[in-house]
């Protein structure tokens, strides 16, 4: 019929999160924005750190317009990549160079480019529940198929036995996302070490590398003294898909990178495949100005103490009302067990209390809901009576 039906379907189908967000906008127009408690979107609510605007001003003053806004090399400005490589090497005790880095327009592009760099027809990619729903879109568009492996629902750490059963000769890669969207869970060193041990054994058994794709836009958003293990220290065949969207609160600026481990098998060829996929997909030369901002601000973060404050407030209140919550050590999402089996029905009920929550079915976890707490602390405070009333409605 002339156009790609699959793409048309993707374009026409709005995500559940978007549906709820649109509903929220309509409802706010009806009853007032302060009466609707919208916990649907994962848009950072803390401003970018000063270094972002400061750097933009300095760059505008110090660089010629042509240099600032012109094309960089396809894989990104060499100085920017050097600066990020130095930071990563120092911070995580690894040795990476500019030649291992490919600048992208955020984690979404990092994932698509990485998947296209390694996927061949018939390949399977494993992810763990709950997972970012776009993984299915990205994997299928790269010609692969997505296999989801359930995590332990007690704490949402990895179920290594389930993983072991899911890995086959067709497994080309495993996607991990820690801190996790939508659960906020940070994978422990034990989970990571266990995962890597299974993958090393299976790679050797099948005589082919299984790649680890680490989707980590929330790496710096962790609370307390929780550590997020750096995968290059555990597994050679790793591609890190990083984004500055959340760490610097600049999601609309679209900037991130892919780091190809220098110790990956045939690392130079893998990096060439990343460059090739970037070229084939048209993801060359990420925005020049924000490459430079990222290069200068790497290591800085927005004030994450605000997210911690929100988490503490929401978690302790919801637990006191009787909700079963998964304690989030990172990101800005709280994962809560639905008070009825059908999380969609529960979210509909929540709307009666002007609470906008997201059912986790699309994240591969029916029976749970996601609450995004990247909102003002005031919104959380004002919403608490509604959460309490919702819990009471189920008790009665
Ligand atoms: N991966 C996960 C788990 C996310 O939550 C997001 C955005 O929310 C992305 C990838 C995409 O990030 P970006 O905006 O940097 O493309």
Sum this structure up briefly.
The chain has 396 residues and is of the alpha/beta class. 43% of the residues lie in helices and 14% in strands. The protein has two domains: 5-49 and 302-395, Aspartate Aminotransferase, domain 1 (Alpha-Beta Complex); 68-297, Aspartate Aminotransferase, domain 2.
Topology:
Blueprint: H1 5-12, H2 16-31, E1 37-38, H3 50-62, H4 65-69, H5 78-92, E2 101-104, H6 106-118, E3 124-128, H7 134-141, E4 145-149, H8 160-166, E5 171-176, H9 189-206, E6 211-215, E7 238-243, E8 256-260, H10 267-281, H11 288-297, H12 305-320, E9 325-326, E10 333-337, H13 343-351, E11 355-356, E12 358-359, E13 368-372, H14 377-395
Helix pairs in contact: 3-11, 5-11, 6-7, 6-10, 12-14
The structure holds pyridoxal-5'-phosphate.
Pyridoxal-5'-phosphate (PLP) binds next to helix 6.
Bound molecules: pyridoxal-5'-phosphate
CATH class of the largest domain: Alpha Beta
Tally of DSSP helical segments: 14
- Gyration radius (Cα, Å) is 21 Å
What is the fold named in CATH at topology level of the largest domain? Aspartate Aminotransferase, domain 2
CATH superfamily of the largest domain: Type I PLP-dependent aspartate aminotransferase-like (Major domain)
| Secondary-structure element pattern, one letter each | HHEHHHEHEHEHEHEEEHHHEEHEEEH
Distance between the termini: 54 Å
Mean pLDDT: 97
Principal-axes geometry comes out as globular
List segments where confidence is low: pLDDT < 50 over at least 5 consecutive residues: none
- Helix fraction, binned, reads 40-55%
Sequence of strands across the biggest β-sheet:
2-8-7-6-5-3-4
Count of spatially separate domains: 2
The SS-based structural class is alpha/beta
User: At CATH's second level, what is the architecture of the largest domain?
Assistant: 3-Layer(aba) Sandwich
